[in-house]
Amino acid sequence: MTDLVVRRLLIDLETPFDPRWNGGDAFRSAFFNALSMSFPVGEQFFIDSVREGWKQLPPEQQARMATEVKGFVGQEATHRRIHELFKRHLSDMGFENSFAERARKRIQKQAHLDVRMHLAATAATEHFTALFADWMLHHPEALAGAQPRLQTLWLWHSAEESEHRCTAFDLYQALGGNERRRLQVFRYVTVTFLVDILRQTVRNLWHDGSLFKLQTWRSASRMLWAKDGMLRGNVALWRDYLRPDFHPSQHPAPMSQAWLRDNTAQFTVVGQAA
Ligand SMILES: [Fe+2]
Ligand SMILES: [Fe+2]
């Protein structure tokens, strides 16, 4: 069981930012913008899945997980709100968000499925966010040149994603979710998530006028495909999810705790697990 704290970020998100807010780097800006565009819809889906899954637990398990679920929902609701503000600036700059629309349709189409399917999809996506989050905390250069308030936003989100990486997975197991389905859904989520991010990143780069510039793809290759890049450097950890005895807590996340400990001036705690 994890003690999850809900934090309110003390940063200014009202002031607009540049289209290439991430250090003037077109690719890094477009890629993070694509992620941000997916968050409000995605995080609402995680909240709904975890809430519904928790409701279906037997009473004694409900009691055991109540504070963790409350913390998870509070953290994801805060992320959703913050990225809603971030996304508003993107749409003011004319960026079109097709990622969220595709995700919304997919969620609607699969709404009738057993809650364990929703939890399997949530746990699978949370594996990605936890890997990306830990990578971000180890590679702050991915945000080099961004305004400190925007660096804080992305690192705070990363720290909390890492912190609550077990919740959906534990619920899936507590509800008797089986291994075969867990892996099937993980493979499906891997493909849809990566394709959606790529499509939206390309769309953002097109709008920015930098899709066909060599510099753009040099930056992409540095950030994603370098030996310790966000994608290539995470392949082994991604694959861990396929092991029958995998649990997200097997991936230690000391960087998340360190960031939260060293940056207490950036947030206030608004809810604490009792
Ligand atoms: Fe989140
Ligand atoms: Fe999350």
Descriptive account of the structure:
With 274 residues, the chain is mostly helical. 66% of the residues lie in helices and 3% in strands. It has helices at 26-55, 59-92, 98-109, 115-138, 148-163, 167-174, 179-208, 214-225, 235-240, 254-262, and strands spanning 6-9, 267-271. It has a two-stranded antiparallel sheet with strand order 1-2. The protein is globular, with a radius of gyration of 18 Å. It starts with 5 loop residues before the first strand and ends with a strand. The mean pLDDT is 96. Bound molecules: fe (ii) ion (FE2) (2 copies).
In a nutshell, what does this entry contain?
By secondary structure, the chain is mainly alpha-helical.
Keywords:
274 residues; 3% strand; mainly alpha
List of distinct ligands in this structure: fe (ii) ion
Q: Count every beta strand, where a strand is a DSSP E run of 2 or more residues.
A: 2
Output the strand order for the largest sheet: 1-2
N- and C-termini, Cα separation: 12 Å
